[in-house]
Write a structure and sequence with these properties.
The protein is of the alpha+beta class. The chain contains 20 helices and 27 strands. Helices cover about 25% and strands about 20% of the residues. The protein has a six-stranded antiparallel β-sheet with strand order 1-2-7-8-10-9, with helices on one face. Strands 4-13-12-11 form a four-stranded mixed β-sheet. The protein has a three-stranded antiparallel β-sheet with strand order 3-6-5.
Length: about 625
């Protein structure tokens, strides 16, 4: 069931020569539709009767190998991302069975006019931080100003269209938005953690620290053994536990995270029952690594959970701040040196599909020859784009063949490098006209990708390229990444179901010049900037789709990366002690785990069998 007006209250405001309609609502969607009405009691994917208690023990989120800071909002330090997952509440929360809908948490209602020139959030007076202090509009103002001034470049880009933020009272905060800021921005603002201003009196926002952070969310930090473990347990006085958005959620008493720099050691620890839930990122491990006794006895289960989100934008990014990588022929040659088919067949057991698009697995992916509204958008930039954008399908990288050495691909790569002026000398080294060798540095902070990257670098070396792949310690890699001190980098970004202003952080010109930003490629292109703004300004999904397709088509024509792979499922291994909703949330697995619960009966059976120790 879709709710339209009158699920909202619409009032007419007279603030000038023309009347403006102002919507006041319990929820917000970038394109107007809400699945849940104002009197909903819980999300459909929640179990209102879920048991409470127990511990969800798992390895670190996102494969981050270590941490030395609990301040997750700045570029300094190697942060523990789990802190953001459990500690902080936001003004509103996403419904993970809708593409872009938000419902009130700290904010009871949202107000906005038709032109989205401003947005107002009315805060619940009962909202409290962990120390009992009230959450006020001034805390929201502090949060936004801190993120815009000293936050990670991602936040600075995301909030660049927030012209002003003002606390109109303790429970009412107003944001003035730039013209054309886009309908996704109010939701992006509502999704941000709200920080306690008074906490930062003693803990500077712009510094890294290991002080246990404070928020208003369901969990608090209760134990840290840096850099090995971090544990969060329930705030017994959590103010929002009974709100509809939290019914059936936050069922575990604690979440415990174990950090492993080595994937093999991490899997061995899981097999021994040192933690009880593992998202498996390696296809080879999934296919061959789960043959230990706990699996054979049925105590550990392997499950596939469908992923309804866009595939991550994961790949090998080319740092075009380096002069040698500004030549598109060099970038194309590097692309031919990556043999996906062999990698997939040999290392991944044929389980993946190639990622061609920056909006893979969505209707925003460009396909075929540009037509209709997408073509009309591209025509605006015809004199700034290569002709093939209009007459050819979008770029699809050469996939390779399932043999260790794809000679045809390497011949094509060699020809491209020859054309670019990098010629092989008598010693087999490619040099330019002034004798400089063609060389690349490829650092990473984990050996998890080594088995994939080494065959790629061996192909590069066979072409006469001097390439160095180094696994360095995480803190050194963090510093180098912030200053873009690399040639190639393997990284993945999450892609939103409804993309918006965050695209500036990944592909925008401002981000290219901002130290520590997510624009690893250094792409700074006026057409890309303009297309991002078309996506941001979309007022309907019908406007969004052709704008995103045009952006995707142009990005792919730039050859800024070697796109990797995707599967459409999450590989999850669990000790069989959990309850999982019958219909898990399709749009966010990591948040979806918050709706699982601990099955005490199953757990006790495994303890009695000697499979697990009685510690969870």
């Amino acid at each position: 069931m879709k709710w339209h007006f009158p699920a909202f209250l619409i009032i007419t405001a007279f603030a000038g020569p023309a009347a403006a309609e102002v919507t006041i609502s319990h929820g917000y969607s970038a394109f107007g539709d809400l699945k849940y009405g104002p009197d909903f009691t819980h999300f459909n994917y929640a179990n209102p009767g879920a048991p409470q208690g127990g511990t969800m023990s798992q390895r670190q989120l996102y494969g981050t190998p270590t941490f030395d800071s609990l301040n997750i909002f700045i570029i300094k330090g190697d942060t523990a991302p789990e802190a953001g997952h459990h500690i902080y509440d936001s003004l509103m929360v996403r419904a993970y069975d809708e593409p872009d809908a938000m419902y009130g948490l700290i904010a009871e209602t949202i107000e906005y006019p038709d032109d989205l020139s401003y947005v107002v959030f009315n805060l619940r007076p009962e909202a409290r931080f962990h120390d009992g202090e009230q959450v006020t509009a001034q805390d929201v103002v502090f949060t936004i100003n801190a993120l815009k001034t000293d936050g990670h470049p991602y936040y600075r880009n995301l909030l660049s269209d927030v012209v002003a933020v003002e606390a109109e009272s303790d429970q009412r905060v107003r944001f003035d938005l730039a013209p054309g800021a886009g309908s996704a921005l109010p939701g992006d603002i509502a999704d941000l953690a709200v920080l306690p201003e008074h906490f930062y009196d003693d803990n500077p926002f712009d510094e890294s620290w290991m002080t246990w952070p404070m928020g208003s969310g369901p969990y608090e930090v209760t134990a840290v053994d840096q850099p090995r473990t971090i544990t969060f347990c329930k705030d017994p006085d959590y103010w929002a536990q009974d709100l509809p958005v939290n019914v059936g959620k936050n069922n575990f008493e604690c979440f415990a995270y174990e950090y492993f720099a080595d994937e093999t050691v991490g899997l061995e620890a899981f097999a021994a029952g040192e933690y009880t839930m593992r998202v498996e990122y390696r296809a080879a491990s999934w296919a061959t690594g789960y043959d230990f006794p706990a699996v054979q006895n049925g105590w550990v289960k392997q499950i596939l959970l469908p992923d309804g989100r866009p595939a991550n934008a994961q790949g090998i990014w080319f740092n075009m701040r380096r002069p040698v990588l500004q030549d598109i022929r060099v970038r194309q040659a590097l692309e031919y040196a990556f043999n996906f088919e062999w990698t997939n067949e040999t290392l991944f057991y044929g389980t993946y599909n190639r990622t061609d698009s920056f909006f893979e697995n969505t209707e925003m992916e460009a396909v075929g020859i540009a037509q209709g509204d997408e073509l009309a958008i591209l025509e605006t930039f015809r004199d700034q784009l290569p002709p093939e954008v209009f007459i050819e399908p979008p770029h699809i990288p050469y996939a390779g063949i399932a043999t260790p050495r794809d000679r045809a691909a390497l011949r094509t790569a060699a020809s491209l490098l020859d054309d670019a002026g990098w010629v092989v000398d008598d010693a087999g080294v490619r040099r330019n006209s002034v004798g400089e060798a063609l060389s690349f540095e490829f650092p990473d902070d984990s050996r998890g990708m080594e088995r994939i990257i080494v065959p790629f670098t061996e192909n590069l070396k066979s072409l006469g390229i001097d390439v160095t792949f180094d696994v360095i310690d995480p803190s050194t890699w963090s510093e180098r990444r912030q200053t873009f001190d690399f040639d190639l980098s393997v990284t993945g970004w999450g892609v939103k179901v409804t993309p918006g202003a965050e695209l500036r952080a990944f592909y925008g010109s401002k981000a290219a010049a901002s130290e520590g930003s997510n624009n690893l490629s250094g792409l700074a292109d006026p057409v890309v900037d303009a297309l991002i703004e078309r996506v941001v300004a979309a007022q309907t999904r019908e406007d969004l789709i052709p704008a995103a397709r045009a952006l995707d088509r142009v990005l792919r024509s730039k050859h800024i990366w070697v796109g990797h792979w995707h599967s459409g499922n999450h590989r999850v291994a669990i000790w069989d002690i959990f309850g999982i909703p019958n219909e898990p949330a399709p749009y966010d697995f990591n948040r979806g785990v918050d709706f699982w619960w601990f099955d005490q009966e199953k757990y006790q059976a495994l303890v009695n069998a000697g499979a697990l120790t009685d510690r969870f």
